[in-house]
Write a structure and sequence with these properties.
single chain; 276 residues; alpha/beta; Arc Repressor Mutant, subunit A; D-Maltodextrin-Binding Protein, domain 2; 3 domains; two-stranded antiparallel ribbon; 24% strand; globular
Length: 276
């Protein structure tokens, strides 16, 4: 309630009253209240689904009737491990708001995307870097996590079997962390395909490392209880090109930023001691 009130620029009591009126009008409780948290009831989850669709429709109508017509082509670049779960939702939202704009998705390694951007062949790119350039907008920051098969035991093996693409920017960071921790490792697969890497890891032949909330659904973060070293902090950064398509690229960048902000708000843990 406190965070909702802050985001809406209302008092907590005003938000509580609005929620109470909504529950009374619908005839259903929408939230299960406890001392530590508030979680949606079944009716609350259903209402949330409808509410999101209503907001999306509102955004679409507003964009169609108030924005001048945009058309053209944009190239959006993103590393393989950033595409999900964010980019499909970004493309869906942008296509509804700007139906005459064609967005081509280019998925590759960060260093290749930055080279593409430098040559003027991409309009917006996302990267995974420790130190983004000064003109980048940092969307997310956090440590990498060890990734393995559900219930897997590969992380216990020594030397530790690793699975990474040949050009993956995380690969040398992980190797350095293991070297510093005195843990031997071996590269279990040499591949240019992230799908091959995921197949090897899901078979519990090796472990991988990646961004926490971008873990593929068939893999999990390894609960190693300190048996593996802490990995470096990485940032997801966004670069937006200038030039003749700067305004249109800025529209796409704004949708990306909004989606990341919305996801961060959902994932943000409740502050200690705050109850609804």
């Amino acid at each position: 309630m406190t965070r909702a009130a802050s985001r809406l620029n209302l008092t907590q009591s005003a938000v509580s009253m609005q929620l109470k009126r909504l529950e009374e009008g619908l005839g259903h409780p929408l939230l299960e209240r406890s001392r530590r948290a508030m979680t949606p009831t079944a009716a609350g989850e259903q209402l949330l689904s409808y509410a999101r669709r209503m907001l999306d429709l509102n955004d679409e109508v507003w964009a169609r009737l108030t924005e001048r017509s945009y058309e053209g082509n944009l190239v959006l670049g993103a590393p393989h491990d950033v595409v999900y779960p964010y980019i499909p939702e970004v493309l869906r939202h942008f296509a509804r708001a700007y139906p005459r704009v064609n967005v081509q998705l280019q998925s590759s390694y960060t260093h290749e995307l930055k080279a593409l951007f430098a040559r003027g062949e991409a309009d917006v790119i996302l990267t995974t870097e420790v130190t983004p350039d000064r003109d980048a907008l940092v969307l997310q920051s956090g440590p990498l996590v060890w990734i393995g098969a559900p219930g897997g035991q590969a992380w216990r093996q020594r030397p530790l079997p690793l699975a990474f693409e040949n050009g993956c920017i995380f690969r040398p960071w992980v190797q350095r962390a293991l070297d510093d921790a005195g843990i031997g490792w071996t590269m279990a697969v040499e591949s240019m395909s992230i799908r091959t890497v995921e197949a090897i890891v899901s078979a519990d032949f090796a472990v991988h490392a990646g961004i926490a909330d971008a873990t593929p659904p068939h893999l999990v973060a390894v609960e190693h209880a300190g048996a593996l070293p802490v990995l470096p902090t990485t940032k997801i950064a966004m670069y937006v090109a200038g030039g003749p398509k700067a305004e249109l690229a800025g529209k796409l960048a704004e949708v990306i930023r909004q989606k990341w902000d919305a996801t961060a708000a959902v994932l943000e843990p409740a502050p200690a001691g705050v109850a609804g």
